[in-house]
Amino acid sequence: MDQTKVFLSEKDMPRQWYNLAADMPNPPLPPLGPDGKPVSPDMLAPVFPMNLIEQEMCTDRWVDIPEEVLGLLMLWRPSPLYRAHRLEKLLGTPARIYYKNEGVSPPGSHKPNTAIPQAWYNKQFGIERLTTETGAGQWGSALAFACALVDLECKVFMVRISFDQKPFRRLMMETWGATCIPSPSPETKAGRDILEKMPDTPGSLGIAISEAIEAAVTDPTGKTRYSLGSVLNHVLLHQTIIGLEAKKQLDLLSEKQVDVVIGCAGGGSNFSGLAFPFVADKIAGAEIAIIPVEPTSCPTMTRAPYAYDHGDTAGMTPLLPMHSLGHTFVPPPIHAGGLRYHGMAPLLSLAITEKLMEPRAYDQLKCYEAAVTWARTEGFISAPETAHAIAAVIDEANKAKEEGKEKVILFNWSGHGLMDLSGYDAYFQGKLVDYPLPEEELQKSLESIKDLPKPEDVAKSLA
Ligand SMILES: Cc1ncc(COP(=O)(O)O)c(C=O)c1O
Questions:
Q1: Which residues' Cβ are closer than 6 Å to ligand 1?
Q2: Contact criterion met (CB below 8 Å) for 408 and 258
Q3: Of 327, 308, 321, 335, the residue nearest 190 (C-alpha)
Q4: I need a labelling partner for 247 at 20 to 30 A (CA). Which of 93, 127, 193, 212 fits?
Q5: Are 290 and 275 within 8 A, CB to CB?
Q6: Closest Cα to atom 1, ligand 1: which residue?
Q7: Among 79, 114, 138, which is best to mutate for testing ligand 1, by the most ligand atoms less than 8 A from CB?
């Protein structure tokens, strides 16, 4: 009988994270402050603890994972690597499809891979409380879980549309001891301003980030910091444990060459976590198609420019060099709440501009169709975000069949959808529609970045 999954022993878990910044052909551009100059670590100090700021700016190739963090990650890591035998059979493909099952963590996704180290580093720095935003609720529950483990308070601003669609996510956060409120909220100036202009807004990750940062920096005790679940370098760094484990597991199966690496991308963390160790191989000459997948309703990588932009709607964050739809973008209310973000991680955006990746966008109906096929073959019910990766896997497996090639396809099954069944319900009832972003809306949204510094000018000025 063919092997279905590979477990790695705890003693073989990676002891270091991998930092792609060390190997990029062109070095990453710095974040910029309000004066248009690179931000200094001190400027970020009200928002993040210094130990994480150092990691954010670090250019070392390998970063040690603290022993205590490893111990906490071992609650569910190493995550199993599965082979999707039944999907392969259904498709009649010669491809071998492997996936990392990140849905085995207590909150149900890859997000705790960074929530745990972030909470731990904050605790080490003497912080008592973390604030954050959440879209689908996966990140908020991951941080709530991590804060419970290291004994920190946690407050989560949840995008209103998801707050309404996913009441059980709020209950998970509360069970782990966090507070969760819908965003925009009357609790912050950023929230009040938006509510005055758009009382019925479904909210957005950009707005919720503004609220969470404001709540952290205005705490008079100085003991609150903000935590972000994606986009930033240190978040992607923490997620590389996924790809590093996958490499060891593929070795155990004597798979010498991966041909295609796939993941869904909202802010870019789960995809980068799996893909970056393989991007290193690609930079060194390996032939690998590396494919991040996004929704057509929020086409950050496939249609938005590489530009400097704020990470949040109110413009509180430094300017980041990234693919961005513009910080005022309010995405249509598709069910993949975690993919509704206007920007994309700077390091991933840079890899796209360097042609190390081949991003793609899919409509939500195709993704649900893929997720249902997956559930009926592989059994697991996928998060709507993860469904985007599955749709691309099916396309790539069919392509391998047409070409008659025995390819190895690896993807990240970033989370389960057991708290997202309302989306499946809407799909089965025929209530879901596709929302490819209209060009006029894209252009309107890009207005918000037209006067900001341009990456090419900044690169020249720093050369
Ligand atoms: C299951 C799952 N996958 C993917 C994502 C997208 O985030 P990222 O691009 O940072 O991995 C999310 C975000 O909430 C998620 O919950």
A1: 109, 135-136, 138-139, 230, 264-271, 338-339, 383, 385-386, 414-415
A2: yes
A3: 327
A4: 93
A5: yes
A6: 415
A7: 138
